[in-house]
Design brief:
The chain is of the alpha+beta class. The protein has a single domain (44-167), classed as Sandwich (Immunoglobulin-like), CATH 2.60.40. Helix content is 17%, strand content 46%. The strands form 2 sheets. Strands 1, 5, 6, 8 and 9 form a 5-stranded antiparallel sheet that branches. A 4-stranded antiparallel sheet has the order 2-3-4-7.
């Protein structure tokens, strides 16, 4: 008995599937950075500090960020702690994907530059996330705004499902 052979070998199918997955993953990750033109409205803007260190809290429906920031010449130093809100922690078993960043704007709120603060995935849902970094402040920047996007896996029976949460202040 002769077995029929398919023109598609498993290795080709695997490679094609892997390529497709990579394209989808990269395009979805790039989307957050692709929309960098626009305006951040005044209520969402945070005035860039002078030379003294400032402490602040940024809270949304999904999370709370306690952070410190200071400016020295053309450099912004920013560090902080991100804690997910109970509404996510109580309804999820794990964090699959999370990214938080900063948007620099001019005096009219026009986006000048976006920079990442932290990216993570798969940590314990109850664990805080930390960031500590510095950036060159773009010429003309007078304020900044924070943004984030994330996916968590719900605590349902079986495999559960993913749900997304985000705050993206660019209009």
């Amino acid at each position: 008995m002769k077995l029929s052979t398919s023109p598609w070998k498993p290795s080709r199918m695997t490679a094609a599937f892997a390529t497709l997955c990579a394209v989808v993953l990269l395009s979805s990750q790039a989307m957050a950075f692709a929309v960098s033109r626009g305006v951040v409205l005044e209520p969402d803007r945070i005035t860039l500090p002078g030379n003294a260190e400032e402490k602040a809290v940024w809270e949304t429906r999904d999370l709370k960020v306690d952070y410190r920031f200071s400016r020295s010449g053309g450099q912004l130093r920013i560090s902080g702690t991100v804690r997910l809100d109970d509404s996510i922690r109580y309804n999820a078993t794990s964090l699959w994907d999370f990214h938080i960043g900063v948007i620099f704007t001019d005096g009219h709120g026009r986006v000048l530059q976006m920079r990442g603060l932290a990216t993570t995935g798969f940590p314990g849902i109850d664990e805080p996330m930390y960031f500590n970094t510095s950036f060159s402040v773009p010429a003309g920047a007078t304020s900044m705004a924070l943004y984030y996007q994330g996916q968590a896996k719900d605590s349902g029976n079986g495999s559960g499902s993913l749900f997304s949460f985000w705050q993206y202040p660019i209009h």
